[in-house]
Amino acid sequence: MNENNTLNWQAYEYKHTPKSADWFWALGIIAISIAVTSILFNNFLFAIFIILGALALGIFAKRRPLLLSIEINDKGIKVGRTFYAFSSIESFWVDAENENDQKVIIKVDSITMSHVAIPIEEIDPMDIKEYLLKYLPEEEHAEPIANKIMERLGF
């Protein structure tokens, strides 16, 4: 905690896993196979959707993660350019079991996403927990399943 009564740290938005050429070949073969099959069933729109999705996935796979500045102050949590006011956060959970993959998981009052996982690096997770307990209730949350699937796929 610094003199402004805030917690600050930097963390990458996700753990980058380099993809081999084989990974991209597999993505292309699977996408083309599904697209051809959907064309055989006269579902052209689905074929276009699969090809565009595979292209987007390939582009995202090449992208390096951004280094985010994270700040927790008396008004809320700022992750990069996104600010979550305490009034829009229902509760939090500090997941510090895995020393290589520590996160703050906040439950947000939002239609588009209910949980946000914020990576913890360069700071003691218990300092974050003590600070957030002043403003929010603690409630155990699991990391969103979509995050786990993306991590498993190497994103």
Can you characterise this structure?
The protein is α+β, with helices and mostly antiparallel strands. It has 2 domains: 94 residues, PH-domain like (Roll), CATH 2.30.29; 42 residues. It is built from 4 helices and 7 strands; from the N terminus they run E-H-H-E-E-E-E-E-E-H-H. It has a 4-stranded antiparallel sheet with strand order 1-2-3-4, covered by helices on one side. It is elongated.
Q: What is the name of the CATH architecture of the largest domain?
A: Roll
Residue runs with pLDDT of under 50 for 5 or more positions: none
Q: What structural category arises from helix and sheet content? A: alpha+beta
Which descriptor suits the 3D outline? elongated
Quote the CATH topology of the largest domain.
Answer: PH-domain like
- Beta-strand segment tally: 7
- How many separate structural domains? 2
Q: What is the beta-strand fraction?
A: 15-25%
* Separation of the first and last Cα atoms: 31 Å
Number of helices: 4
Largest sheet: 4 strands, antiparallel
Reading the helices and strands in chain order gives: EHHEEEEEEHH
User: What is the mean predicted local confidence, pLDDT?
Assistant: 87
- Helical percentage: 25-40%
